[in-house]
Design a protein that fits this description.
Blueprint (H helix, E strand, L loop, with lengths): L1 H25 L4 H18 L2 H9 L1 H15 L8 H8 L7 H11 L3 H23 L18 H24 L3 H22 L2 H18 L2 H21 L1 H15 L9 H17 L11 H9 L11 H27 L5 H16 L9 H24 L6
Helix pairs in contact: 1-2, 1-7, 3-6, 4-6, 4-15, 6-17, 7-8, 7-9, 7-17, 8-9, 8-10, 8-16, 10-11, 10-16, 12-13, 13-15, 15-16, 16-17
């Protein structure tokens, strides 16, 4: 009887691993597929997960803090002064955080963590090919989409491609050090193609900020001081060359001051100007309920009240402010503590730690300009990436085995 239960648990665990792989592969393409796969994965992992491992994971800050922020978002529905429908839709942004400790526990024991990360990379590479085909009009443009953006939007695609640039650099360096020169060269080339897409096609301002930061961290992790100085020089030269060769990139950067100074919410709406206005309004809103905020799901109502008219604003375009409006300083402290806990988890050698560190840093930097953790695709990338990579790191530390990709 016990043997049958053990066999069933192993089968369910294997299915949960396969669902996690499929979930990662769906992220660049379909929100519906991600949602469906996510719910099926959740059922399977809850049925198969080792309870002792989960309990130990929740005692760690990397696992316990996401759950604490999830629970605070749930409890925060109680003091919101909006309809319960609005409170539920506000809580929907917090729900995915529940998956982080489950993934950490799952992939401490599973050997398929790298397959999950590889599934995302391969899927995004297919999207890269489609993006270039669309950019050269080989594929017809999609209605209401930027050129070269075949699914979702420019910011989301920029986030995905930014992560892939760094993932491939980690793989290339590992292959080079293992003497696999051809594999290393292939990874460098594909990484470069992702970078060229960011510069010439996607041109997301968020990516233009996060890419240099991530490259500097990558260099600091892997190179000695003289090598790092050369690497920084290469980054500067590559950035200058990209600016010289990409008119669209120059336009996106040069327009920022004009967008801020000419912004008019009733007439001339601009991306950069709107963000500044959102941030100012958000700070004013937080000032009236600084400790616990206005409750989960309150953002739209608070912006409407601040504007003196109905507003469609549901996103202050800053993750900290998005949490602060709803859950106050307590929520902000939990958010920052979670980021710090995940950063500390990935301050370790190995490719899984490098991938995890890239995901966390990209989310932190990108969250200065967008509510990345609560946006659907970017949020799920963080949850799956940090959960799976973190599980691999914790599993390696638990067993004391060397990491191999």
């Amino acid at each position: 009887m016990g043997g049958d239960n053990l066999s069933t648990n192993r089968q369910l665990a294997g299915l949960a691993d396969c669902l996690a792989i499929a979930l990662a592969a769906s992220l660049p393409w379909s929100t519906s597929a991600t949602s469906i796969l996510g719910w099926i994965w959740l059922v399977l992992v809850l049925l198969s997960l080792d309870r002792a491992t989960l309990a130990a994971t929740l005692r760690r800050p990397a696992g316990g803090l996401p759950l604490a922020l999830f629970l605070l978002g749930l409890v925060g529905m109680a003091w919101g002064h909006v309809s319960w429908v609005d409170r539920y839709y506000g809580f929907d942004s917090f729900e995915k955080l529940f998956a982080i400790p489950l993934l950490l526990a799952q992939f401490q024991r599973s050997r398929r963590g790298y397959q999950v990360l590889a599934a995302f990379l391969i899927s995004a590479t297919v999207l890269l090919v489609v993006s270039w085909l669309a950019a050269f009009w080989i594929l017809p443009p999609r209605p209401n989409k930027d050129i070269g953006v075949f699914v979702k939007d420019r910011i989301t695609q920029g986030t995905e491609f930014t992560l892939c640039v760094l993932f491939l650099l980690e793989l290339a360096l590992l292959a080079w050090r293992q003497g696999k020169r051809l594999a290393a060269l292939a990874a460098y080339v594909v990484s470069g193609v992702f970078f060229l897409n960011i510069v010439f096609v996607t041109v997301s301002r968020t990516s233009l900020v996060t890419v240099p930061v991530l490259l500097l961290i990558f260099g600091a992790r892997h190179f000695r001081p003289r090598q790092l100085a050369v690497f920084i020089l290469v980054i500067v030269m590559a950035g200058g060359l990209a600016a010289a060769l990409s008119p669209h990139l120059r336009e996106r950067v040069v327009q920022i001051p004009a967008e801020i100074t000419t912004f008019d919410p009733h007439g001339h709406d601009t991306s950069a100007g709107a963000r500044i206005a959102f941030w100012r309004t958000s700070l004013e809103i937080m000032g009236s309920a600084p400790l616990l905020g206005h409750g989960t799901g309150s953002i739209n109502a608070e912006f409407s009240e601040a504007a003196g008219r109905p507003s469609n604003a549901t996103n202050p375009h800053n993750q900290t402010l998005t949490v602060g409006i709803q859950l106050g300083i307590v929520g902000i402290v939990l958010l920052i503590a979670m980021w710090i806990a995940h950063l500390r988890l990935f301050l370790a050698p190995g490719i899984a730690a490098g991938v995890g560190l890239t995901i966390v840093v990209e989310n932190v930097v990108g969250s200065l300009f967008n509510s990345q953790l609560f946006d659907f695709t970017q949020g799920w990338i963080y949850v799956v990436g940090a959960g799976v990579a973190g599980g691999v790191v914790l599993g390696r530390n638990r067993t004391g085995t060397a990491e191999s990709a």
